[in-house]
């Protein structure tokens, strides 16, 4: 006897997906670069809002969560843990004014590579996936580490920034749950293509690149 499963989204799921769509629209309404150094004079609130004000960091954080969700356990949690851990390393280098070449290019590249990984449904081995995310984490951390000494309350700013980054990872994981719906995989792959295209746009807009 064949059972027919009801795969129609519930009203609660539809409401949740509308929230996700609103988040994505908010992403594209933000500034294209989160590393201008503007608006970093405050404490916790400034740190929390700063990742949301730049398309590059925001898309990379969400993409880490989406890619981890598509790869499944243990990478669904390993990637969002590896990124902030190495971001701390990059941040320390930035605070210490240790030079790191091509930081902004590396950040744009992170958006492109992560987007393409989602778009191609790349089942990267755990070591490679964690390695990619870790390297990009250093670039993102270094860019923000150079801004940290400019803040009025560096510790509070850093705490707000880390919490905001973690929430963006969780948002990406939540979006990745779409893969369980009919044609969810296609939707996620399309979103990866959009993210990669945004990364190319960010890179093309950098001085001396276009």
What is the count of helical runs?
Answer: 8
H-E string: HHHHHHHH
Largest sheet: none
Question: Mean of the pLDDT scores?
Answer: 79
Oligomerization status of the protein chains: single chain
Q: Outline, from the CA principal axes?
A: globular
Number of domains: 1
Classification by helices and strands = mainly alpha
Strand fraction: under 5%
Q: Tally of extended strands?
A: 0
Percent of residues in helices comes to 55-70%
Key attributes of the depicted protein:
mainly alpha; 210 residues; 8 helices; single chain
Structure write-up:
Keywords: Membrane, Signal, Transmembrane, Transmembrane helix. With 210 residues, the protein is mostly helical. The chain has one domain (39-204). The chain contains eight helices and no strands. It has helices at 11-29, 44-49, 55-71, 75-95, 103-119, 126-145, 154-176, 184-204. Helix 4 (75-95) packs parallel to helix 6 and helix 5 (103-119) packs antiparallel against helix 8 (184-204). The protein starts with 10 loop residues before the first helix and ends in a 6-residue tail after the last helix. 40% of the residues are buried.
């Amino acid at each position: 006897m064949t059972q027919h499963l009801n795969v129609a989204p519930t009203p609660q799921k539809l409401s949740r997906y509308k929230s996700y769509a609103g988040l994505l629209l908010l992403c594209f309404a933000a500034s294209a670069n989160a590393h201008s150094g503007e608006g970093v004079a405050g404490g916790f609130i400034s740190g929390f809002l700063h990742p949301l004000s730049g398309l590059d960091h925001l898309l990379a954080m969400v993409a880490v969560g989406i890619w981890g969700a598509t790869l499944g356990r243990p990478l669904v949690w390993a990637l969002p843990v590896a990124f902030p851990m190495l971001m701390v390393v990059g941040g320390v280098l930035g605070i210490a004014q240790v030079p790191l070449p091509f930081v902004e290019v590396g950040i744009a590249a992170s958006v492109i590579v992560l987007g393409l990984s989602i778009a191609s449904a790349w089942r990267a081995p755990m070591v490679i996936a964690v390695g990619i995310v870790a390297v990009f984490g250093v670039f993102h951390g270094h860019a923000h580490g150079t801004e940290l000494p400019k803040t009025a309350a560096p510790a509070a700013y850093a705490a707000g920034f880390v919490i905001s980054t973690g929430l963006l990872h969780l948002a990406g994981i939540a979006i990745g749950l779409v893969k369980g719906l009919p044609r969810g995989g296609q939707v996620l792959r399309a979103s990866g293509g959009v993210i990669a295209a945004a990364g190319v746009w960010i890179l093309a807009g950098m001085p001396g690149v276009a």
